[in-house]
Design goal:
Rossmann fold; binds pyridoxal-5'-phosphate
Length: about 400
Amino acid sequence: MKVNNIDFDTYLKNYPDKDGFFGSYGGAYVSDELKKAMDEITEAYFTICKSSKFISELRRIRREFQGRPTPISHLERLSAKLGNVQLYAKREDLNHTGAHKLNHCMGEALLAKYMGKKKVIAETGAGQHGVALATAAAYFGLECDIYMGSVDIKKQAPNVARMKILGANVVEVTHGLATLKEAVDAAFEAYTKEYKDSIYCIGSVLGPHPFPMMVRDFQSVVGIEAREQFLSMTGELPDAVVACVGGGSNSMGMFSGFLNDPVEIYGVEPLGRGPKLGDHAASLKYGTEGIMHGFNSIMLKDENGEPAPVYSVASGLDYPSSGPEHAFLRDAGRVKYDVIDDEETIEAFFTLSRLEGIIPAIESAHAVAYGMKLAKEMGRGSILINLSGRGDKDMDYIIEKYGIR
Ligand SMILES: *Cc1c(COP(=O)(O)O)cnc(C)c1O
């Protein structure tokens, strides 16, 4: 299939190019020292990760430890309530640790092991990536340093406890605002010194090349499974596929399975409290091109051109940019990006729980809300929603802020 002169038959093989570019987006804008480390990972990725030994070991781990394949559930009562469109959910909430993040963490940690590294390093904001990586590190017997701002450490006590129970070393970052941005800087600084024995594990399709490509490839298991499952359940492909976009990993995993099909693809960004800068994290809708954290993409900037403060009710979606591949697919017209605000999200959170017995993560509830809206617009057909994670982690927040509806 060709869209705007991009051949989607061979897309996944040709994008990104060898320097990590999707059109003008992506790349590796890092110091010479870090570039060396990134080149080492790229080379290992192409030799190790494409070997049958690595692939079969990862497949076995996905089956025996992660609980894959995750099923697709037909959301019958929700569909009936909305009209004639049939809604389906890919159940990434049933992955071990409760979300899709383990898909790339297990891949990254297995790569670390094959490369002979002793340690994995990462930053975390809300703690979800930290917990997933700490899980993977424990599984492979690797050391694990997670950098986290002291403000986030206070807010996310249960995730900090989980990481520690799993054997990770949580490194407190106290300078600046002591949140995610400072944690990223501190983790990169540590990695620059330690890269001979360690590997940096990015938590989404972000950062310098090869991470956007590698994380997409590790997450593509979602789209590959979903396509096969949907075909065998219904004999057809879905008319539309929907996923929420923070950094963009669960969505890229899902979308990669359907890019070459006659399927409408929708990425959903958080509109938060509204379209004013600072009230949302809808970078693809309101942002402009720029470089941060080692890659070129679309981002939300303040008046000084620095990454702007962002907000979303879902802590996993409040990042001022999105992966370079999303920026590329947006410009190419292959994926449509739209927004859902906090209120629509919370409504969908309660509706899905009540009608289907599935409590979604607040991030995933953005995709559910959009699927519900789209169902009313379409009037007929089928929609597959990627349910990126479960809502257990959000219980305290929901009860405190919204009560029980
Ligand atoms: C982290 C997270 C997200 C957002 O990350 P992406 O890289 O955009 O997928 C979405 N859903 C859940 C449940 C998460 O934990």
